């Protein structure tokens, strides 16, 4: 190799080194690795990615209280019937109440079943309405503890329903924390036969999650559809020209006869109010049985529901997200028209 060629190679290397030092960081990162110093930049990027790690979900502090049915204040005997949870930073307030009274009637015979169910529904609806306002409205002075809210719904007195002292915790999902507390504090004491089936309220909770996500629960209210000699009260209804009534129906039952009887009952009830003065559409929110052996009975029940006259829609649990989005759109359109 001649002296001229050696000098020429050294000049090229010097120019390349100068180019690497002077180039802007953005362009330098796009150069091939062979132009970086021994692949050092690539190693640094890989190290930074490892150190970055997974993104942690935000944790929210919450307080909760358990609703107790105290049969005898003197003896202090009680059964847990509900849970309320409040997470102020997450702007979440919710409650779950026992949908059935079977265990209570076994422990404390003589309980007024209908009054108990009505009271549980009232308490849970009150929390749902307050929770919806909390999540959607500007709050200037938020309560500091769940007890403050709970006692505004059910004041402390000598009645059979009492709130427990509050507990606390932290979670990244307050709604899920409420479900876990409810299952641990209330439903764990149910017998196996009862826990293997689901109530209408259980099915409603499934649909409610998606409606909550769309922030439209505050638009629902109870509505009684009546004719001269019959009536049906729907707990979750909203009006847009006609009444739109959501009714959860659980066919997750113990026997095929129970499924058939329930379908017959709803077929008869809805048929009987078709001539009501108030125009309405009913959405039957259906929960299917978990036992595969009961699926044929469920299919027959669905066939009965489809024969119900009038304006109706049957919605399965898997279609809950789509229904919530659709109703949210209709509510928004109705508000714009007003």
Morphology: globular
- Number of self-contained structural domains: 3
Structural class estimated from helices and strands: alpha+beta
Residues in helices, as a percent range: 40-55%
- Can you name the CATH architecture of the largest domain? 3-Layer(aba) Sandwich
* Number of E strands: 10
Count, helices: 12
* Main sheet makeup: 5 strands, antiparallel
CA-CA gap between termini: 90 Å
Beta-strand percentage range: 15-25%
Order of helices and strands: HHHEEEHHHEEHHHEEEHEHEH
Low-confidence spans: pLDDT under 50, at least 5 residues? 2-9, 11-38, 47-51
CATH class annotation of the largest domain: Alpha Beta
- Return Rg in Å: 30 Å
């Amino acid at each position: 190799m001649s002296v001229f060629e050696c000098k020429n190679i050294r000049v090229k290397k010097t120019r390349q080194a100068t180019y690497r030092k002077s180039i802007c960081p953005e362009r330098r990162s796009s150069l091939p690795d062979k132009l970086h110093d021994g692949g050092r930049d690539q190693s640094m990027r890989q190290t930074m990615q490892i150190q970055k790690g997974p993104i942690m979900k935000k944790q929210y502090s919450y307080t909760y209280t358990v609703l107790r049915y105290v049969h005898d204040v003197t003896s202090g005997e009680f059964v847990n019937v509900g849970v309320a949870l409040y997470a102020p930073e997450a702007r979440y307030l919710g409650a779950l109440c026992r949908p059935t009274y079977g265990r209570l009637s076994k422990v404390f015979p003589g309980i007024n079943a209908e009054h108990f169910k009505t009271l549980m529904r009232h308490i849970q609806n009150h929390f749902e309405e307050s929770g919806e306002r909390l999540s959607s409205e500007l709050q200037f002075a938020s309560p500091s503890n769940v007890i403050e809210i709970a006692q505004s719904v059910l004041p402390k007195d000598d009645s059979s329903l009492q709130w427990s002292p509050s507990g606390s915790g932290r979670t990244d999902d307050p709604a899920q924390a409420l479900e876990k507390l409810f299952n641990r504090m209330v439903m764990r004491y149910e017998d196996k036969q009862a826990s293997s089936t689901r109530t209408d309220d259980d099915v409603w909770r499934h649909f409610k999650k998606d409606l909550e996500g769309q922030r439209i629960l505050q638009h629902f209210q109870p509505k009684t559809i009546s004719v001269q000699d019959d009536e049906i009260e729907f707990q979750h209804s909203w009006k847009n020209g006609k009444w739109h009534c959501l009714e959860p129906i659980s066919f997750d039952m113990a026997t095929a006869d129970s499924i058939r009887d329930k379908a017959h009952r709803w077929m008869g009830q809805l048929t009987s109010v078709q001539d009501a003065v108030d125009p309405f559409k009913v959405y039957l929110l259906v929960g299917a049985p978990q036992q595969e052996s009961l699926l044929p009975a469920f299919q027959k029940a669905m066939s009965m529901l489809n024969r119900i006259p009038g304006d109706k829609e049957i919605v399965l649990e898997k279609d809950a997200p789509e229904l919530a989005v659709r109703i949210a759109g209709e509510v928004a359109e109705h508000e714009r028209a007003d």
